[in-house]
Recover the amino acids of this structure.
C-alpha cells in the first residue's frame, strides 16, 4: 500500500493542499467521521457499504476527494516508491463503526448480492483504492521525488560507536545491531525504494518466507535505483525484446493504468521483483510464467478482465497480497481470498497444480573413449567401482514453512522416500553415501530396503542425539555409508565429531573463536575402511556434512581441516596392516593366471597411497576456501574465508593435506548446481578422489536446462530433495613398482 510511513528521526514534509489537514498520522480521523474517508454523493457509491448499529448505511471504500480533510486525500502517496514492504491497514475491528459479516454491495435498496467483509477483504479493497488513486502518469515517481526532496538530511550521521561489527556473507564488516540498537536507514535508501520501517522478518503467509539455511545468501545486484514507474502513460504493448526485461535489479515495477492486453513471459528475467502492479489494464489472462518470480510479495491485478488464475502462481510462496478486485474472477477463487486471504489462495493453487513434464534422464559424461572402455572391460586386472553421494533432505527439515513453493503432497516423506530409493537403486553403485538420514529412517527404511539389494551399512547421527530423549533422538539426522557386502569387507569404521576432535587436539589453541564458533556445531563425518574381497585392494571412504551458514566460512574451513587430519591419521594406521594372505587356489579352477584373486594383494607404504574417496555435502561453492583447500592441498593463513578469526596453527601456518584430491567433476567442470531452491542454485556437493591411485571413467551429468528453467526449485514432484545426487565411476590405477636400488658405484683401482 501507499501509506505515509515516518522513520524515526527523519521528518517527512510534503506540500499539501490548502484544504488538507497537516496530520501526518496515516490512520488519524476526525471524531465525527466513522468511515475510511469522505462520504460519497448519495446513490453514486460504487463500493461496499456497511450497516451501523443504528441501521444507517455508510460507504466503506471510495475514491479520495482532493479537497476533503484526512490523510486519504494525499498523504497516502508519500514515499510510494520507497516502500518495498507495505504495511496492511488496520482490520475492521479497529475502525469505528465497522463490523465483520455480510455487507451489501452497492447502493441502499439496489438488491445487490451481499459479500463477506473480513479483514482480508478490507485489506484488499483498501489497497485497490490506493491503486485507483494513482492512475495519473508516473504518479509514484513524482510522489517519491517530492518526498526525497523534502527529507531533512543530517550533515553528520548519528551512529553508535559501540556497535558490534557484523561480518556479512562476503566477509566484509558492517555495522549491525548492538545491544538492541538497530542501524539507521539513510535517506538515500529511502529514496531508492528501501522502506525505513521494513525488516527482514517473516510474513503472514501460510507458506514460509523464511528460507531454510543456505550455504550462501542470495544477493540482489547492486544499483542506485530499484524502482521503475511506467504507470498511466498508455502503454499498449510490451514486446518480448523490450529493454525493460534487462533491468534484472528491479524490485518494484509499476505498469498500472496503461492499455496492456498481455504480459510477455520474458518478465521472468526480473528475478528480484517484490512488487508488480498491473492494475487498470486490459489483461484477460495472467502468464503462468509469473510463478517463477518467487520474490514477489505484492502482485496487483486490480481492474482488469481476468476470469481465472493459472495454478502455476502457487509457487509464489512469499506473496502477501494478490489484488483481484475489479475483475470478473471465478467466484470460488474470490470467496477464498475474502474468507482466508491471499496465502490460502496461493496454497490452493500450489496443491492443485499438475506436475510438470518429467525431465529427460540425466546422461552419463564419459571421460574415456569407447575403445578405452572396451579394453578396460576385457582386462580382468582393471578394477572399477562407483560412488553415489546424496543429501536426501531429512523429514524433519522438509517443512512447508521452508519449502513453500513445493506442493504439500510432494513434500511428505511418504512420497519422497520412494523416489529417493528409486534413484539409489537405479544407479546400483558400490558405495552409497547419504547425508541427512535420521535414526528412524536409517533403521526402518534405508537399511531394511537396501539390505535386500545386497548392501550393508554404517551410520552415525549428529552429536545432539546424546542429550535427547528416545522419541526426539530418532529424528536426529546424520551420515550413512552403504556398500556392496558381496564385494567389499568392512575393516573399520570411525566417527569424526568435529567439535570433539577439536577439543582433543593439543596443537589447536583453545581460543574464544574456537569455543564460540566451532565447538557449538555438532556436524560429523564418518570414515570407513574397506577391502575388496577378490583383489585385496583397500579403500578409504569418508562421508561428511559441513556447516551451512555463509557467515561461518571459517568454521567450514576448520571442519574440513579436521576431517583431512583425521583421514590422514586413519589412513596411516590402515597402511600398516599386513596384506591379506592369498586365497588358496581352487582345484577346479585350472586357469587362474589372469584371475584377480590369484594376484598377491597390494601393500601400502603410506596412507596417502590407499585409494581414497571423500564425499558429501560441503556447503561450499567452487570459489570457496574449502574447495581450494581440498583441491590444491593447501590454504594460506591469510585467506579471506578465515574472516579474521584465530584457530591456533591453522591460522598461523595455513592448512595442508597430502592426498592430492580432485573433484570427480573437475574434468568436465562442476555441475551448474547440486542444490536448487527458489533462492539458491549452486554446486555444493562433491566427490573427491586421490589422483595418485584413482582415475575417473564417467560422471552423471546435469539436469536438462530446459527443465530447470521452468521450475522454481527442488524438492518437486520429480526431485525429492533440494539436492541432486552425484555419481562417479572410478578405476584403480596399478601401483607403481618401486625402482630397484642402484648398485654401489665401482671405482677403478688407483695406479699408486
Amino acid at each position: 500500500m501507499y501509506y505515509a510511513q515516518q522513520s524515526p528521526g527523519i521528518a517527512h514534509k510534503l506540500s499539501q493542499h490548502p484544504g488538507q489537514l497537516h496530520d501526518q498520522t496515516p490512520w488519524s480521523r476526525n471524531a465525527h467521521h466513522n468511515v475510511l474517508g469522505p462520504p460519497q454523493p448519495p446513490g453514486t457509491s460504487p463500493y461496499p457499504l456497511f450497516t451501523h448499529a443504528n441501521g444507517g448505511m455508510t460507504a466503506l471504500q471510495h475514491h479520495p476527494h482532493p479537497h476533503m480533510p484526512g490523510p486519504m486525500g494525499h498523504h497516502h502517496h508519500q514515499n510510494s516508491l520507497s516502500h518495498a514492504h507495505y504495511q496492511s491497514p488496520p482490520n475492521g475491528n479497529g475502525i469505528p463503526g465497522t463490523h465483520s459479516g455480510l455487507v451489501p454491495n452497492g447502493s441502499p435498496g439496489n438488491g445487490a448480492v451481499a459479500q463477506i467483509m473480513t479483514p482480508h477483504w478490507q485489506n484488499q479493497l483498501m489497497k485497490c483504492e490506493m491503486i485507483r488513486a494513482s492512475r495519473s502518469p508516473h504518479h509514484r515517481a513524482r510522489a517519491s521525488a517530492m518526498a526525497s526532496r523534502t527529507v531533512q538530511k543530517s550533515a553528520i550521521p548519528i551512529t553508535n560507536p559501540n556497535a558490534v561489527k557484523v561480518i556479512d556473507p562476503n566477509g566484509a564488516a558492517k555495522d549491525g545491531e548492538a545491544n538492541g540498537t538497530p542501524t539507521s536507514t539513510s535517506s538515500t535508501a529511502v529514496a531508492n525504494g528501501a522502506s525505513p520501517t521494513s525488516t527482514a522478518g517473516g510474513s503472514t503467509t501460510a507458506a514460509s518466507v523464511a528460507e531454510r539455511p543456505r550455504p550462501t545468501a542470495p544477493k540482489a545486484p547492486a544499483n542506485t535505483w530499484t524502482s521503475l514507474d511506467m504507470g498511466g502513460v498508455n502503454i499498449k504493448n510490451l514486446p518480448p525484446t523490450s529493454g525493460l526485461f534487462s533491468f534484472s535489479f528491479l524490485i518494484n515495477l509499476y505498469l498500472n493504468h496503461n492499455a496492456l492486453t498481455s504480459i510477455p513471459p520474458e518478465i521472468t528475467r526480473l528475478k528480484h521483483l517484490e512488487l508488480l502492479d498491473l492494475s487498470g489494464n486490459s489483461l484477460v489472462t495472467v502468464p503462468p510464467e509469473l510463478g517463477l518470480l518467487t520474490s514477489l510479495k505484492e502482485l496487483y491485478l486490480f481492474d482488469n478482465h481476468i476470469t481465472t488464475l493459472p495454478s502455476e502462481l502457487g509457487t509464489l510462496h512469499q506473496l502477501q497480497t494478490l489484488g483481484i478486485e475489479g475483475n470478473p474472477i471465478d467466484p470460488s477463487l474470490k470467496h477464498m481470498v475474502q474468507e482466508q486471504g491471499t496465502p490460502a489462495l496461493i496454497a490452493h493453487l500450489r496443491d492443485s497444480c499438475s506436475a510438470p513434464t518429467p525431465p529427460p534422464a540425466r546422461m552419463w559424461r564419459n571421460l574415456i573413449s569407447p575403445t578405452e572402455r572396451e579394453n578396460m572391460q576385457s582386462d580382468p586386472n582393471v578394477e572399477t567401482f562407483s560412488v553415489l553421494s546424496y543429501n536426501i533432505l531429512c523429514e524433519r527439515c522438509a517443512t512447508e514453512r521452508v519449502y513453500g513453493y513445493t506442493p504439500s503432497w510432494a513434500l511428505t516423506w511418504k512420497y519422497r522416500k520412494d523416489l529417493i530409493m528409486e534413484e539409489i537403486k537405479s544407479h546400483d553403485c558400490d558405495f552409497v553415501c547419504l547425508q541427512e538420514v535420521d535414526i528412524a529412517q536409517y533403521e526402518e527404511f534405508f537399511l531394511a530396503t537396501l539390505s535386500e539389494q545386497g548392501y550393508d551399512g554404517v551410520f552415525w547421527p549428529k552429536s545432539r542425539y546424546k542429550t535427547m530423549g528416545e522419541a526426539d533422538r530418532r529424528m536426529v539426522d546424520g551420515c550413512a555409508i552403504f556398500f556392496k557386502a558381496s564385494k567389499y569387507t568392512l575393516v573399520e569404521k570411525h566417527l569424526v565429531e568435529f567439535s570433539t576432535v577439536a577439543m582433543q587436539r593439543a596443537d589447536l589453541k583453545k581460543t574464544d573463536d574456537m569455543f564460540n564458533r566451532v565447538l557449538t556445531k555438532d556436524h560429523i563425518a564418518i570414515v570407513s575402511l574397506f577391502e575388496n574381497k577378490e583383489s585385496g585392494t583397500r579403500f578409504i571412504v569418508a562421508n561428511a556434512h559441513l556447516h551451512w551458514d555463509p557467515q561461518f566460512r571459517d568454521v567450514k574451513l576448520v571442519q574440513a581441516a579436521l576431517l583431512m587430519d583425521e583421514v590422514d591419521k586413519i589412513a596411516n594406521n590402515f597402511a600398516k596392516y599386513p596384506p591379506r594372505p592369498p586365497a588358496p587356489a581352487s582345484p577346479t579352477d585350472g586357469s587362474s593366471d589372469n584371475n584377480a584373486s590369484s594376484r598377491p594383494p597390494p601393500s601400502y607404504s603410506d596412507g596417502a597411497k590407499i585409494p581414497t574417496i571423500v564425499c558429501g555435502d560441503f556447503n561450499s561453492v567452487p570459489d570457496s576456501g574449502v574447495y581450494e583447500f581440498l583441491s590444491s592441498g593447501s590454504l594460506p593463513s591469510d585467506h579471506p574465508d578465515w574472516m579474521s578469526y584465530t584457530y591456533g596453527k591453522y591460522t598461523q601456518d595455513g592448512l595442508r593435506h597430502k592426498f592430492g584430491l580432485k573433484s570427480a567433476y573437475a574434468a568436465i567442470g562442476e555441475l551448474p548446481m547440486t542444490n536448487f531452491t527458489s533462492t539458491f542454485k549452486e554446486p555444493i556437493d562433491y566427490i573427491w578422489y586421490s589422483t595418485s591411485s584413482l582415475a575417473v571413467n564417467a560422471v552423471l551429468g546435469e539436469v536438462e536446462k530446459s527443465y530447470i528453467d521452468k521450475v522454481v526449485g527442488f524438492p518437486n514432484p520429480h526431485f525429492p530433495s533440494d539436492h541432486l545426487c552425484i555419481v562417479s565411476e572410478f578405476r584403480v590405477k596399478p601401483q607403481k613398482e618401486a625402482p630397484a636400488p642402484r648398485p654401489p658405484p665401482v671405482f677403478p683401482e688407483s695406479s699408486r
Observations:
- The chain has three domains: 1-152, 200-352, 364-578+601-732.
- Residues 32 and 96 are 10 Å apart (CA to CA).
- Confidence is low (pLDDT under 50) at residues 1-113, 166-212, 590-594.
